[in-house]
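so i finally got all the pieces together for this one. its two components total, 206 residues if u count the protein bits. some of the lines might not be protein, just check the labels. i wanna see the whole assembly predicted at once instead of chain by chain like last time, that was a mess tbh
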Amino acid sequence: MPRETNPKIISNGRRYMGNMAVAGVLYSAAVFGGAFAIRNEALPQWAAILAALAPLLPALLMLRAYAIFLNGIDEFQRRIQTDAMLIAAGVVGFGSFAYGFLEEWAGFPHLPLIWVFPALIGIWGLAACVLRLRYK
Amino acid sequence: MRNRLKVLRAERNWSQADLADKLDVSRQSVNAIETGKYDPSLPLAFKIAAVFSLPIEQIFSADEVAQAAE
Protein backbone atom coordinates (compact mmCIF):
# COMPACT_ATOMS: atom_id res chain seq x y z
CA MET A 1 0.00 0.00 0.00
CA PRO A 2 1.52 3.38 -1.03
CA ARG A 3 2.49 5.85 1.66
CA GLU A 4 0.91 9.24 2.24
CA THR A 5 1.88 11.77 -0.43
CA ASN A 6 -0.23 14.85 0.35
CA PRO A 7 2.36 17.48 1.41
CA LYS A 8 -0.12 19.28 3.67
CA ILE A 9 -0.90 16.08 5.59
CA ILE A 10 2.80 15.17 5.81
CA SER A 11 3.86 18.62 7.09
CA ASN A 12 0.99 18.58 9.61
CA GLY A 13 2.23 15.22 10.94
CA ARG A 14 5.81 16.51 11.15
CA ARG A 15 4.73 19.66 12.97
CA TYR A 16 2.80 17.50 15.44
CA MET A 17 5.83 15.31 16.11
CA GLY A 18 8.00 18.43 16.59
CA ASN A 19 5.53 20.08 18.97
CA MET A 20 5.12 16.84 20.93
CA ALA A 21 8.89 16.38 21.17
CA VAL A 22 9.33 19.89 22.63
CA ALA A 23 6.46 19.34 25.08
CA GLY A 24 7.87 15.90 25.97
CA VAL A 25 11.30 17.33 26.82
CA LEU A 26 9.69 20.08 28.95
CA TYR A 27 7.48 17.47 30.65
CA SER A 28 10.48 15.28 31.51
CA ALA A 29 12.32 18.33 32.88
CA ALA A 30 9.29 19.31 35.01
CA VAL A 31 8.85 15.76 36.38
CA PHE A 32 12.54 15.27 37.21
CA GLY A 33 12.84 18.82 38.57
CA GLY A 34 9.70 18.40 40.70
CA ALA A 35 10.77 14.97 41.99
CA PHE A 36 14.18 16.42 42.92
CA ALA A 37 12.64 19.49 44.61
CA ILE A 38 10.20 17.58 46.85
CA ARG A 39 13.09 15.53 48.29
CA ASN A 40 13.98 18.69 50.20
CA GLU A 41 12.03 18.22 53.45
CA ALA A 42 12.23 21.95 54.24
CA LEU A 43 10.27 22.77 51.08
CA PRO A 44 7.25 24.96 51.99
CA GLN A 45 3.77 23.67 51.11
CA TRP A 46 3.19 26.27 48.40
CA ALA A 47 6.43 25.25 46.67
CA ALA A 48 5.46 21.57 46.86
CA ILE A 49 2.11 22.43 45.24
CA LEU A 50 3.93 24.37 42.49
CA ALA A 51 6.32 21.45 41.92
CA ALA A 52 3.41 19.00 41.80
CA LEU A 53 1.49 21.08 39.26
CA ALA A 54 4.52 22.02 37.10
CA PRO A 55 4.21 18.93 34.80
CA LEU A 56 0.70 20.09 33.97
CA LEU A 57 1.98 23.01 31.86
CA PRO A 58 3.94 20.87 29.35
CA ALA A 59 1.02 18.38 29.41
CA LEU A 60 -1.22 21.26 28.31
CA LEU A 61 1.34 22.00 25.55
CA MET A 62 0.84 18.39 24.40
CA LEU A 63 -2.91 18.99 24.35
CA ARG A 64 -2.32 22.15 22.28
CA ALA A 65 -0.11 20.18 19.85
CA TYR A 66 -2.88 17.60 19.49
CA ALA A 67 -5.53 20.30 18.90
CA ILE A 68 -3.36 21.86 16.15
CA PHE A 69 -2.86 18.38 14.66
CA LEU A 70 -6.62 17.72 14.69
CA ASN A 71 -7.27 20.98 12.85
CA GLY A 72 -4.77 20.06 10.14
CA ILE A 73 -6.10 16.61 9.22
CA ASP A 74 -9.00 15.75 6.94
CA GLU A 75 -12.49 14.67 8.01
CA PHE A 76 -11.83 10.94 7.68
CA GLN A 77 -8.68 11.05 9.81
CA ARG A 78 -10.50 13.24 12.33
CA ARG A 79 -13.22 10.59 12.48
CA ILE A 80 -10.59 7.96 13.38
CA GLN A 81 -9.14 10.23 16.07
CA THR A 82 -12.48 11.09 17.64
CA ASP A 83 -13.67 7.46 17.53
CA ALA A 84 -10.42 6.40 19.23
CA MET A 85 -10.86 9.11 21.87
CA LEU A 86 -14.43 7.97 22.56
CA ILE A 87 -13.28 4.36 22.92
CA ALA A 88 -10.49 5.43 25.31
CA ALA A 89 -12.89 7.59 27.36
CA GLY A 90 -15.35 4.70 27.59
CA VAL A 91 -12.76 2.06 28.52
CA VAL A 92 -10.93 4.24 31.08
CA GLY A 93 -14.13 5.79 32.46
CA PHE A 94 -15.93 2.50 33.01
CA GLY A 95 -12.68 0.72 33.94
CA SER A 96 -11.84 3.20 36.70
CA PHE A 97 -15.48 3.23 37.84
CA ALA A 98 -15.48 -0.57 38.11
CA TYR A 99 -12.08 -0.59 39.83
CA GLY A 100 -13.35 2.00 42.31
CA PHE A 101 -16.09 -0.40 43.39
CA LEU A 102 -13.57 -3.26 43.56
CA GLU A 103 -11.32 -1.12 45.79
CA GLU A 104 -14.15 -0.09 48.08
CA TRP A 105 -16.06 -3.35 48.35
CA ALA A 106 -13.71 -6.17 47.39
CA GLY A 107 -10.47 -5.03 49.02
CA PHE A 108 -8.53 -4.53 45.78
CA PRO A 109 -5.25 -2.57 46.22
CA HIS A 110 -5.45 1.21 45.94
CA LEU A 111 -4.28 2.63 42.59
CA PRO A 112 -3.20 6.30 42.41
CA LEU A 113 -5.29 8.62 40.21
CA ILE A 114 -2.11 9.67 38.38
CA TRP A 115 -2.48 6.58 36.16
CA VAL A 116 -5.87 7.62 34.74
CA PHE A 117 -4.50 10.11 32.19
CA PRO A 118 -1.65 7.89 30.90
CA ALA A 119 -4.17 5.03 30.58
CA LEU A 120 -6.46 7.33 28.57
CA ILE A 121 -3.60 8.33 26.24
CA GLY A 122 -2.35 4.74 25.89
CA ILE A 123 -5.75 3.28 25.04
CA TRP A 124 -6.49 6.18 22.69
CA GLY A 125 -3.24 5.45 20.78
CA LEU A 126 -3.98 1.73 20.63
CA ALA A 127 -7.57 2.33 19.47
CA ALA A 128 -6.37 4.77 16.77
CA CYS A 129 -3.94 2.13 15.45
CA VAL A 130 -6.64 -0.57 15.39
CA LEU A 131 -9.14 1.75 13.66
CA ARG A 132 -6.54 2.79 11.07
CA LEU A 133 -5.90 -0.90 10.28
CA ARG A 134 -9.64 -1.49 9.98
CA TYR A 135 -9.94 1.19 7.30
CA LYS A 136 -6.85 0.05 5.33
CA MET B 1 -23.70 4.39 0.08
CA ARG B 2 -22.09 3.28 -3.20
CA ASN B 3 -19.78 5.29 -5.42
CA ARG B 4 -18.05 5.16 -8.81
CA LEU B 5 -14.87 6.82 -7.61
CA LYS B 6 -12.53 3.99 -8.61
CA VAL B 7 -13.96 3.79 -12.15
CA LEU B 8 -13.94 7.56 -12.65
CA ARG B 9 -10.39 7.78 -11.35
CA ALA B 10 -9.24 4.97 -13.65
CA GLU B 11 -10.86 6.69 -16.66
CA ARG B 12 -8.70 9.73 -15.97
CA ASN B 13 -5.57 7.71 -15.17
CA TRP B 14 -5.35 9.26 -11.73
CA SER B 15 -3.77 7.45 -8.81
CA GLN B 16 -5.34 7.61 -5.35
CA ALA B 17 -2.56 10.03 -4.42
CA ASP B 18 -3.40 12.28 -7.42
CA LEU B 19 -7.05 12.42 -6.39
CA ALA B 20 -6.10 12.99 -2.74
CA ASP B 21 -3.96 15.98 -3.77
CA LYS B 22 -6.82 17.44 -5.84
CA LEU B 23 -9.25 17.02 -2.94
CA ASP B 24 -6.71 18.14 -0.33
CA VAL B 25 -7.26 15.00 1.75
CA SER B 26 -5.06 12.03 2.66
CA ARG B 27 -4.62 9.09 0.29
CA GLN B 28 -6.01 6.85 3.03
CA SER B 29 -9.22 8.90 2.97
CA VAL B 30 -9.61 8.39 -0.79
CA ASN B 31 -9.06 4.66 -0.29
CA ALA B 32 -11.65 4.51 2.52
CA ILE B 33 -14.23 6.36 0.39
CA GLU B 34 -13.53 4.23 -2.69
CA THR B 35 -13.93 0.97 -0.79
CA GLY B 36 -17.17 2.20 0.79
CA LYS B 37 -15.76 2.06 4.32
CA TYR B 38 -16.30 5.78 4.82
CA ASP B 39 -19.05 8.03 3.48
CA PRO B 40 -17.79 11.57 2.84
CA SER B 41 -19.49 14.65 4.26
CA LEU B 42 -21.69 16.69 1.93
CA PRO B 43 -19.00 19.40 1.43
CA LEU B 44 -16.40 16.75 0.48
CA ALA B 45 -18.91 14.99 -1.79
CA PHE B 46 -19.48 18.32 -3.59
CA LYS B 47 -15.73 18.80 -3.87
CA ILE B 48 -15.38 15.31 -5.39
CA ALA B 49 -18.17 16.12 -7.86
CA ALA B 50 -16.41 19.37 -8.81
CA VAL B 51 -13.08 17.58 -9.36
CA PHE B 52 -14.74 15.08 -11.72
CA SER B 53 -17.01 17.79 -13.23
CA LEU B 54 -20.04 15.58 -12.65
CA PRO B 55 -23.24 15.93 -10.63
CA ILE B 56 -23.09 14.20 -7.23
CA GLU B 57 -25.78 11.68 -8.16
CA GLN B 58 -23.61 10.37 -11.01
CA ILE B 59 -20.87 9.53 -8.49
CA PHE B 60 -22.74 8.52 -5.33
CA SER B 61 -25.94 6.57 -4.90
CA ALA B 62 -27.78 5.15 -1.92
CA ASP B 63 -27.46 1.35 -1.55
CA GLU B 64 -31.17 0.81 -2.20
CA VAL B 65 -31.11 2.95 -5.36
CA ALA B 66 -28.05 1.10 -6.67
CA GLN B 67 -29.64 -2.27 -5.93
CA ALA B 68 -32.86 -1.27 -7.67
CA ALA B 69 -30.92 -0.19 -10.77
CA GLU B 70 -29.04 -3.54 -10.98
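Chain B is about 60% helix and 5% strand.
The mean pLDDT of chain B is 91.
anyway lmk what u think
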